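Q: what does this look like with fe (ii) ion bound?
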Amino acid sequence: MIGAHTGLNEKVLAYRPSDPPVEEIRPPKDRAFFADLEKRSLLSAVTKVKHLTPYIGTELQGVQLSQLDEKQKNELALLVAERGVVFFRDQDLTLEGQHEFTKHFGIVDLIHLSFYGRLDIDIPLFSKTGTLTKSIHVIAFAEFHSDHSFEINPPSYTLLRMVKTPEYGGDTIWTSQTALFDKLSPTFQKTFEGLHGVHSSEHTYINTINRGGTTFRLPVRREHPLVRTHPVTKQKALFYNPAFVIHIAELKGFEALHTLNFLREHLHSADDLTVRWQWEAGSIALWDNRVAVHRAVPGGYNTEEREGKRTAVYGEKPFYDPSSKTLSEWQAERNQNEVPVIKTELDGF
Ligand SMILES: [Fe+2]
């Protein structure tokens, strides 16, 4: 259920978070703006480019992230923006190396990612000089979400490195919000383009306190465009996730409820727009949290056997540009420029 929590009780009401609210920040120019559109430098360094599905997810083989130069990292940023998530296996990145690598993509988000309690993903916290100070644990969310979407500046490039993992179980699924928007009818697209999702951290705040965890700030409720423009690709994407979006600002209560139910069904039935990744120790996923939602597949494994390290950078404040393009329009434009494209078909119901 959207926004379900374990109870607004006296313990929650008496809780006093230590940190003040976060102000808006202006992140530096997205590194993907500096990339060669053909990504020649990055692609010449890999042994294989394996697209895992038509719409989302590419695995790059035969390359170590620790060895990439600035140019290749910029091209990787563009590839992540276009493919939603890019995967690697058998990586030699250390924790400090991961922090250094992440810094290339912007301002590492330390405050926001220190928001939660416990469980099977570590958020390493670094001091300003880059020294590891402590780690906290967060719950691997079983419902689709984009990380911290309720913040003013939700993360953009986000990296999860798996340190240990059970033999099976604990996979992660990503779904393309760009393709989800593209699959809607033009009428629904037009309707959603003017709306704003209301993102809330209230239920996670309450749940964290009731589970005995630590949360550093008071909960927030924030409106973001329901259809968002990617600043680099200029593609339109839904900016919806059932874990944090509790209302649609412009709609009446039941209008919003049924619209959110539709969006959740649209998302959960989108097997064709989805990639499922089975982790191994040393695997890395680098995703664009602005255009891909994800979920941990729950159950059937011991969470003690799963340990990952996540780092992320601040994204821009989400915005909608009416002149931006659907995925189909973007692909058609590329086609004119004779770059191979994947055909998109609009589904009927
Ligand atoms: Fe997540």
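The pocket of fe (ii) ion is lined by residues 141, 145, 147, 294 (CB under 6 Å). The longest strand covers residues 155-164.
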